[in-house]
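for the writeup, i need someone to sanity check this before i put it in the appendix. the sequnce is what the collaborator sent (i think, or maybe the updated version? ugh). structure was predicted straight from it, no edits. if anything looks off just tell me and ill rerun, i have time this weekend
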Amino acid sequence: MDQSTLDALLGFAPDYDSPIPYIRRTRAYYAAIGYTTAYRWAHYLAAPFTRLAKPLGQCTVAIVTTAAPYQPDKGDQGPGAAYNGSAKFYSVYSGDTAQDHDLRISHIGYDRIHTAATDGNTWFPLPALRRAATTGRIGAVAARFHGAPTNRSQRVTIETDAPEILARIRQDGADAAILVPNCPVCHQTCALTARHLEANGIPTVLMGCARDIVEHAAAPRFLFSDFPLGNSAGKPHDVASQDRTLALALDLLEAAPGPQTTMQSPLRWNEDGRWKLDYLNLEQLGEEELQRRRAEFDRQKELARPNRPSDQPVKAA
C-alpha cells in the first residue's frame, strides 16, 4: 500500500495542507534573490497578559491596522495592484470610526496570487465591529482606529510606534484592542504592538494568518485563520465569514486562560489547500523570475524612500 492510499484510508490530510512556514520561506526567498544577511524575526519565550477589567459587553474596543489610507498621487493601489512601495506610511496615523475609510494593502506583501484585494472588510473589520456593538457583544467601538507602520525595524516598533499607539488608545478610553496584520512583517509589527499594549494594561487579540511569526514573537492572544495573507478578518465578500471570524476573536479576547493562547478558526479557504504551495515558495519559481523580483524589489525600495519619516504623516481618508 503506497503512502497516498494509506493516508486516504486513515483520513489524513496531505502534508502541504499545513500552515505556511513564513519564517523559513521568507529567509530562503530573500537569500535566493541576493539578500545574504538573514532577517532575524522577533522571538520571545513568554508574553505579557492583561485580563478584561469588565464584561466585554461593557468594553470599548479599538482596531489597530497595517492597512494604508488610499493616496491618489501614489500610483496604483487598487485590486490586483503590484507591490507599491510608494504607498507605504512610516508614522502612526488615526481615523474616525464613525466614518467609512478607504484603506488598502498595495504597500505590503500580501498573497497576490490568491487574494484579489477587492474587499477591504477582509483586512479592516470596522463594519463587523460596528455590528458587534449594535448587538451588544461589545460595549462600543473606540472613537478612533490606529494605523501601525509595517516596520522591519523591531526597535522602532517597540520604542516608537507601539508607545504612540498605546497613548492614542488611552486617549480614546478604549478597554481593549484588536490588531489586524496583513503581510509577514505586519504580523510581527502587530505581535510586538500587542505585547506592548498588554504590558501596559490593555487586553488584546491579534487576528492573523501567519501562525509561525505571531507565535515566534509570543503574542498574548492570537486568532489564527489559515487563509492567504490579506484575509485576517475573514473571506472576501462573505459577511458571515467576517462576522464569524470577529466573533471568534472576541471569544478569545474574553476567555483566553492565559498568555500565548492561540485559537484556530475552523473556517477553510477552500477544500483543496494547494494555495499554500505558492507564497514565496522557491520550488515554484525559476531563476529568471527570481532575478526579475530582485530588480523589482530594489525599484520599490527607491520608490518608498521619499516617504520615510522626514515627510508629513499620512492621514486617514
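The domain at 7-317 is CATH 3.40.50.2300 (Rossmann fold). The chain is about 30% helix and 10% strand.
thx in advance!!
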